[in-house]
Amino acid sequence: MSETSAETVGLVPAAGLGIRLGGALPKAFVSLAGRPLLSWAIDGLRESGAVGKIVVICGADLLTRAREIAGPHVTVVAGGAERSDSVRAGLAAAGTPRFVLVHDAARCLTPPSLIRSVAAAVWNGAPAVVPALPVVDTIKTVDDHGVVTGTPDRSALRAIQTPQGFDFRLLADAHRESVDEARAVTDDAMLMERAGVPVATVQGDPYAFKITTPLDLALAEAIVASRGANVR
Ligand code: C5P
Fold this sequence. Notes:
Layout: H1 3-6, E1 8-13, E2 31-32, E3 35-36, H2 37-48, E4 53-58, H3 63-70, E5 75-78, H4 83-92, E6 99-102, H5 112-123, E7 128-134, E8 141-142, E9 148-150, E10 158-160, E11 164-167, H6 168-177, H7 179-183, H8 188-194, E12 200-203, H9 214-227
Parallel strand pairs: 1-4, 1-6, 4-5, 7-12
Antiparallel strand pairs: 2-3, 6-11, 7-10, 7-11, 8-9
Helix pairs in contact: 2-5, 4-6
The structure holds cytidine-5'-monophosphate.
């Protein structure tokens, strides 16, 4: 482990219910090729070599199960109702590192190379970094009745993934200072944007897709099966 990775904590929010996946278990505990999504996500972070410590945030009723999955070297804490509540709980358990990577358990097949690329950007001085991919669909805005109100220029749109990398102090301060505001944000970079902190992008990776629906899980199963012995 490098000196810089020793100062980097990986936070893994895994406290979502995963209602859109439709299973009996919260999403991070759903099985992919016989192992929970959470286990895949932790392995990716470990393999990247970019973090010296991992903190998993899960539902209060699943702390014991998450500890079994994560093993003895991972800190596991209870999350909250909104994703930002879970991230805040993770930040509180992270100690005082210089850098933090926030990585959704649901992006369980994220290549370690993408994790390293985000980490390298924050280590090189960017206060906030997100992986971004061009949007392939035309995106429209609609009103309450579903009637189209506009079509943003697609060339300026990006789909944002995780891990998202931050200067630890900046993110911790933003979460502490704006609890109510944070509840309305859908990723951590939004808090930085609102605080006027520049958010840099690195090239995202299609394999860092988020498992949200049964179709996503079927895709992940097919990817893992196609890798055969090379599976990580
Ligand atoms: O719901 P969504 O797919 O956007 O969740 C992204 C990630 O945030 C998932 O890994 C989920 O477990 C986590 N999450 C959380 N606490 C919540 C809601 C979501 O840790 N209250």
